[in-house]
Design a protein that fits this description.
Radius of gyration: 21 Å
Number of helices: 2
Number of strands: 4
Distance between the termini: 62 Å
Structural class: alpha+beta
Strand content: 5-15%
Length: 146
């Protein structure tokens, strides 16, 4: 981590996290401006699909102070991909931190929300997949007409 990436607490001292403070294992201390960060397990072609979707690997010099300990344990050299072993068994499953431009992420989320709205509407009408359902799902905040 470069000296420039060390945060200060406003009093000229290095910012710190108390020893007993809650931190998640995959917590990233700082976000990368203009990007959304996401962890991908290196299984079932997920990394390749993420890359085709616009995600790029986050390099170790882009994010300081990660989670509980050094996340990129086996590859802690500068310009290495940020990763962590995430399995508790002998499989050594590794997750990689990847980034996508925020506007692309927002577009993806809007597309997912459109699908969710269509499913909600079908459920509300009692016809999911063209089938009639007697006890219909009613999203919170909606009043079911009887």
């Amino acid at each position: 981590m470069s000296k420039d990436s060390v945060k200060e607490d406003g009093k000229g001292r290095r910012a710190r996290v108390p020893f007993g403070a809650h931190r998640t294992k995959l917590q990233v201390e700082e976000q990368i401006p203009g990007y959304h960060l996401h962890w991908f397990n290196n299984t079932d072609g997920r990394i390749e699909r993420a890359e085709r979707g616009g995600y790029e690997f986050v390099m170790s010099d882009e994010v300081p102070l990660l989670g509980q300990g050094a996340l990129h344990q086996a590859n802690s050299d500068l310009n290495s991909k940020v990763s962590k072993i995430v399995s508790r068994d002998d499989s050594q499953l590794r997750a990689y931190l990847m980034k996508i431009k925020q506007e692309l992420y927002d577009e993806d989320q809007e597309a997912k929300e459109e699908v969710n709205k269509r499913v909600d509407e079908q459920l509300r009408q009692g016809t999911p997949g063209g089938n009639v359902v007697e006890n219909q799902y009613v999203p919170e905040g909606h009043v079911q007409k009887i």
